[in-house]
Structures are given as C-alpha cells and as structure tokens.
C-alpha cells in the first residue's frame, strides 16, 4: 500500500471524466477473488460436512450449538484482525481468557459479587491487562510478539495459581449468557419462534438498506462501485443465507441464542469503527505504511496502545462467554484460543504483513473454523486430527493469499 492510499481505506480516487461503476463483472470478480473464494470455501466445507455427517451438521439444534460453542472465536477474531492489520500479533488472548474467567468466577462464588457486576468488572480487567501489554508495545517499543508471548506465560501461570483446578457453582443467570436463548416473547408461527423470525427479517432489511445506502454514496461521489449484477447477486445471496439461518434457529429448541445477539452487536460496532472512523483509518494507515502514517500526523503510540486495550476488553468478553458456557472456571480454559483467532483472521483475508483486512472477512474465517470444530466433533474425529486439519486449512489460506498477490502484481 502506497503512502497516498494509507489514510483513506479503501477506495480509489474519483475520475471526474466518467462514472465508475466498477467495470465489468468479470474484472470485479477477479479483483475481489480472495473475498469470494473464502465465501465459496465456506459453502464447500458446509456441504462436505453435511454429507459426511449424514445431514446432522445443519440440524437446527446443531446450528444453535455451533454459534454457542464458537462464540469465543468470533469475539477474539474481531480484536485480532485489528491487531494484525496494524502489523502486530497477540499470542496471549487464550491465557487472558483463562485468567479473567478465573477471577470472574471467584468474584461471584467467593466474594458474593452480583454476576452482572462481575461481568462488567471482567471486561474492565481485560482492558487493564490490555493496557499493561499495550504500554510495553506502544511506549517502550518491545515487539508485540515478545510482549504477548510473555503475557501468555504470565497469565496462564496466574490462572493456575488462582483457579487451581475448578471453580464451580456459578448462578444460572450467568450460565445463560452462553447457554440460554431469548424468550419466546412473540409466541410461535407454526413451529417457528416468532421473535427469531422478526430478528431475521430485521437483519435482512438492515443488510439491504445499508448496501443500498453505501452504493448510492459511492455513485454520488463518483467513486468505484461494484457492477450492478454483482450488487444484486450479493443482496439476493445475503437474504437467502439470512433467511435460511433464521429458519434453522427459529426451528431449534431455544430459538435465538443470547450469545448471537452479543456477537452480532460487536460485529456491527467494529465494522463501523474500522470503516467509518478516524481511528479505523489510522489503523489501516499504520499497517499499510508506518513511516507515511507517522509523517501524516497519526499518533501511532496512542493507536497501538488503544488496540491492545481493545483486545484485552474483547478477551474479557470472551472469558465471560467461555466461563458461562462451561458453567465453571478452569485453569486450562482458553488453550489454543489465540491460534483459532489468528487462523480465522488469516483465513478471512487479513494480510500477513498488515494493512489489509476486514471484520466481516474475519467473521467468515471464524465461521470456517467453527464449522470445522463442530463438523469434526460430530464425526467423532480425534482432537489431535482436528488440530491437524485446522493447521492445513490455515496454511492453504495463507498460501492462496500469497499466490493471489503475485497474480495481481
């Protein structure tokens, strides 16, 4: 990424001589090969596991379980993609999840702190951990790899010291954060939960409205917009996917999982932050061309510091989700969570060298990891082989990214 493109992500300069509608459909698809190939890979993986599991993967209750069991991947991946785009890495998030989860459980069970307050304190504690690591990275200048590697050891050790083996006896309200669903407040439409149907309709309408507004702004300002055929195709596919997922969740035993609302809200917030705020543009600028960003007035130390504070807070949210899902805190919680988040970010199109990556793309990568997790579990594949499969997928995704860049050049 050149210095001229780092501060405004990611649109081409307008050409006053003509309206730019993105060119031909073929050229548009070629330029966005990575994005659409990952969506295609997700579809292929879902279809394969649907076949291999004799149709069990897309059973309504299994789809709800996929969301509940892999919510931590979605949450951590959101923060990880921001860290990687800025040119860093965070190896400590799994240990931070174990540490914060242990402290949260002890606050509830040993100190009688109301679980809602404990959840807030968990997010704050995660932010404090992130601030501690961000200080060493941003203001002392120690590479993030070294700082977070040390953090991985420190917070895993503290988790073992604090938790010991297991801290159980958590209240049902806390456990429902990950295991519960929204109440059937609107009754049922046949066998479908009415509230879930309403949420699905609102989600589909939101996608259509936001995409139309975005396209209108691009056309109004004579900036590059995707071909109309691609635009319509994307809307149709999005509505079909949202409708099908809505049907599956509305048919499940509980309806909409509570944790899905949490994840959805975070995706919307961070997509807006990265695409529509000065902070987001500064993150892309730093990852694309750090010297140019510094010369342009970007306060890189502050941005780096806030990135790690944000990562710590999201790790605190993931700690609450993980502890709630298990119904207890264990010292071994969060093992390999950092690898799942890093893999999901890379699979979703985040560039290894920074500067390129989207929250929505990372969520696609997290979905791929989630489908692999639950699909291999349904097939009763040994945990060691599951790790091997995920490693192969990660290597294939990064290799594809590198080959695609060479092809573009």
Automatic annotation (TrEMBL):
Transmembrane feature ranges: 36-59, 71-101, 113-132, 144-168, 188-208, 228-249, 255-273, 303-321, 359-381
This protein's record includes keyword Translocase: no
A Pfam family of this chain: BPD_transp_2
One GO location term (cellular component): plasma membrane
InterPro entries, alphabetized: ABC_transp_permease (IPR001851)
Membrane topology: Multi-pass membrane protein
Alphabetized CDD domains for the sequence: TM_PBP1_transp_AraH_like
Keyword Ribosomal protein included in the entry's annotation: no
Keywords (A to Z) from UniProt: Cell inner membrane, Cell membrane, Membrane, Sugar transport, Transmembrane, Transmembrane helix, Transport
Subcellular location as annotated: Cell membrane
Any one GO molecular function term: transmembrane transporter activity
Segments of this protein annotated with the region Disordered: 1-23
General function of this protein: Part of the binding-protein-dependent transport system for D-xylose. Probably responsible for the translocation of the substrate across the membrane.
Protein name as catalogued: Xylose transport system permease protein XylH
Species: Actinoplanes lutulentus
């Amino acid at each position: 990424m050149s210095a001229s493109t780092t501060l405004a992500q990611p649109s081409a300069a307008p050409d006053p001589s003509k309206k730019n509608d993105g060119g031909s459909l073929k050229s548009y698809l070629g330029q966005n090969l990575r994005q659409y190939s990952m969506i295609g890979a997700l579809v292929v993986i879902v279809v394969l596991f649907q076949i291999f599991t004799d149709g069990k993967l897309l059973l309504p209750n299994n789809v709800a379980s996929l969301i509940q069991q892999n919510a931590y991947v979605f949450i951590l991946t959101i923060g990880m993609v921001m860290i990687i785009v800025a040119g860093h890495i965070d190896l400590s998030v799994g240990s931070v999840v174990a540490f914060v989860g242990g402290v949260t459980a002890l606050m509830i069970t040993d100190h009688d702190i109301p679980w809602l307050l404990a959840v807030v304190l968990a997010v704050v504690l995660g932010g404090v951990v992130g601030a501690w690591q961000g200080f060493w990275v941003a203001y002392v200048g120690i590479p993030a790899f070294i700082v977070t590697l040390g953090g991985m050891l420190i917070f895993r050790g503290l988790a073992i010291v604090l938790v010991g083996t297991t801290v159980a006896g958590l209240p049902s309200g806390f456990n429902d954060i990950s295991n519960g669903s929204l109440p059937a407040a609107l009754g049922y439409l046949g066998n479908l939960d009415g509230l879930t149907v309403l949420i699905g309709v609102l989600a589909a309408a939101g996608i259509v409205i936001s995409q139309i507004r975005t396209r209108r702004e691009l056309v109004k300002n004579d900036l590059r917009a995707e071909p109309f055929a691609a635009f319509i195709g994307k809307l149709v596919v999005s509505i079909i996917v949202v409708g099908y997922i809505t049907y599956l969740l509305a048919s499940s035993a509980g309806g909409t999982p509570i944790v899905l609302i949490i994840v959805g809200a975070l995706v919307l917030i961070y997509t807006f932050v990265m695409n529509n705020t000065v902070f987001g543009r500064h993150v892309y600028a730093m990852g694309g061309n750090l010297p140019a960003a510094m010369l342009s007035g970007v306060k890189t130390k502050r941005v780096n510091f806030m990135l790690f504070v944000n990562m710590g807070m999201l790790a605190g949210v993931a700690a609450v989700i993980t502890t709630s899902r298990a119904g207890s805190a264990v010292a071994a919680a969060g093992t390999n969570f950092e690898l799942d988040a890093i893999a999901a970010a890379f699979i979703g199109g985040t560039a290894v060298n920074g500067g390129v990556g989207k929250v929505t793309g990372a969520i696609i990568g997290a979905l791929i990891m989630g489908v692999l997790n639950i699909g291999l579990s349904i097939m009763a594949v040994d945990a060691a082989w599951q790790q091997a499969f995920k490693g192969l997928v990660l290597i294939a995704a990064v290799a594809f990214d590198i080959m695609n860049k060479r092809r573009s050049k």
